[in-house]
Amino acid sequence: MDVRELAGVGEKRAAELKKMGIGTAEELLRFFPRTYLDMTQRVSVRELFHNDFALVACRLTGAEPVRRTGRRSFVRAWLEQGGDTFSAVWFNMPYLAPRLKEGEYLFYGRVQNRYGQVSLINPSFEPLERNSRLKGLVPVYSLKSGVSQRAVRDAVRAALDSVCVRTVIPAELVGEFSLSPLGEAYRAVHAPSSQREMQRGAERIAVEEYFKLIAAFRLVKGDRTVPRNRRYTATEREVAAFERRFPFTFTAGQQAAVRAVYDDLASPHRMNRLLQGDVGSGKTAVALTGIFIAVKSGYQAAYLSPTEVLAAQNFQLLQTLFPDYRVGYLAGGSSAKEKREIKAALARGEIDILCGTHAVLQADVEFSSLAFCVCDEQHRFGVAQRNLLGEKGEAPDMLVMSATPIPRTLSLVFYGDLDVTTIPDKPKERQEVSTSVIPERRYRDMLAYIRGEVKRGRQAYFVCAKIEDDDGQVTSVTELYDELRTLLPDVRFLLLHGKMKEREKSEIMGAFKRGEADCLVSTTVIEVGVDVPNATIMVICNAERFGLSQLHQLRGRVGRGSEKSYCFLLAGELGETASERLNILKTTSDGFALAEKDLELRGSGDFLGTRQSGKFLSEIKNLHYGTQAIFTAKKLVDEAFARGLDREEIRRAAMERYESLKDVVLN
């Protein structure tokens, strides 16, 4: 149903909603509130405590023009309540200036109360009307400029009255599990009468969405038990000799992982194993040992990496450790001639190990005897892509690896087709990285310190969340790159981001690794696998925008050499949860502990989010629900498939929603 068919939504309003990605009434219903205002909790300006979030009814008496300070712009408005004056300040939101007109308003935001000066930081606001329908719990949506909260609320209300929301969970299970009607859950989330009602509605919607997602995983994965049709002949003594090629002694965790792989390859069924371990735990060494078992037995192996930067790095490592075997490289950036030669040699069996990127998955890439596959940083690949790799041979054994710690509660659901091995320890040589939260006022001091370290021969990363400055709310990589070259003219900078071609990214990363630049300004494209031992400083801009697990991954890019390393978290104005997250990172280096805490603080819907492209539960990230919703959904899927209940309807709904799993990732 087109939004233009809803009462009160005309062409202009429809165009505004379209800019927000909303074109139908169904999409509007799935545009969930980011928070709620409790209209019974309005407070007096005299009762405001520092760092609280407060709802304040007041009068806007004036506003200053947009100003700039350092890297940020800001707008200030003056407010009055019962004779008391205070201010509201918005950073990097210059588009708000024209909307700041005199009148009565409701403001909601974080309080800054220092030295008797009270300000609301980046508050949301809307006119306070005499006959307002703002009562009880009022939803607040994440909006772009040009559309008001009231307009969205009115449109959502019309959609609730016009759309019939149906569940895809079989009726028999709806009754057995006492699930409420799905339409009621949507109304409870968009127009709740109480916190309890809102939370119950969010839980019900989450169960529905996870039911479809887990069903889609189940349909794509298929049967996990596949008979083995080959025998590996490499002996334990030969495997132990290969391990001695590495310049370090395997840890107990690595040895246990190698044993698990060796036992899998000796079993009558195909291996399908997830190897997870923290940054620097030595997963690659375990994977290369598995590859050795395969090629020593006379078979081919494939090593799949998510980026050309990482693939090129792994290619060099394979050439070093497998001097007696033929190693090939295939990536999108390879020339047409290189691709033809590699594919022909591979099909003839003249290449023992193929290292590459997604290019390896192309239909015309044929192996003569593929037996062992490694999927590195598997969270960048979807199940369907993993299956494509597996189809290159006759049921090849599969080892998928993840350095992104996955909470056990989630891995049980989403990796149910995999045996899981965890490397709990780290090499003794690996250093702890000193982590600090750097406020805005210390930015120049931090740069001065980095300049000094660079002059001593060290290197640094600067990481931003986005490429271009489109809304002014976070620092972009292009903006920071230009600024740093101005502030530190005697320091050599390189720029790296995801919109660059793979060959260009590889060249830039190679130049940085060779020491041809002092600092690399990048997006999170450097998050996984990149190994530059001389880099000792990691600066993460707008660190409050990242989850703990991703911050931990980025921090893992330093501390890989012999020098003391540092991670500086540049943060803007911090709310209570963001502040807690960053302080946890300062004191914790255990990636799995951080992942569990991240799940607790951010919620399942945010932990399982989107990265780079595609949607994966992104619409329900604002909902507040516990992990029990995930387990309930899994039980429902298990029951539905076991009983054969409405399989075709479930298949249609699940695959329609998650038609391609290539973008399914874990944050």
Task: Summarize the structure in words.
With 667 residues, this protein is an alpha/beta fold. The protein folds into 4 domains: 1-34 and 141-163; 46-130, Nucleic acid-binding proteins (OB fold (Dihydrolipoamide Acetyltransferase, E2P), Beta Barrel), CATH 2.40.50.140; 236-423, Rossmann fold, CATH 3.40.50.300; 434-588, Rossmann fold (3-Layer(aba) Sandwich). Helices cover 37% and strands 19% of the residues. The strands form 4 sheets. A 7-stranded parallel β-sheet has the order 11-12-10-13-14-9-15, with helices on both faces. Strand 6 (103-114) and strand 7 (117-127) form a beta hairpin. Helix 17 (548-555) packs antiparallel against helix 19 and helix 18 packs antiparallel against helix 19 (591-602). It is globular. Residues 605-616 and 661-667 have low confidence and may be disordered.
Find the CATH topology of the largest domain. Answer: Rossmann fold
Strand content: 15-25%
Structural class: alpha/beta
Tally of separate helices: 22
The CATH architecture of the largest domain comes to: 3-Layer(aba) Sandwich
Question: What is the rounded distance between the termini?
Answer: 33 Å
Number of strands: 21
- The Cα radius of gyration reads 27 Å
Tally of distinct domains: 4
Contiguous low-pLDDT stretches (5 residues minimum) are 605-616, 661-667
Mean pLDDT: 82
Shape: globular
CATH superfamily of the largest domain: P-loop containing nucleotide triphosphate hydrolases
Q: For the report, how would you describe the main beta sheet?
A: 7 strands, parallel
CATH class of the largest domain: Alpha Beta
Widest beta sheet: strand line-up: 11-12-10-13-14-9-15
Helical coverage, percent range: 25-40%
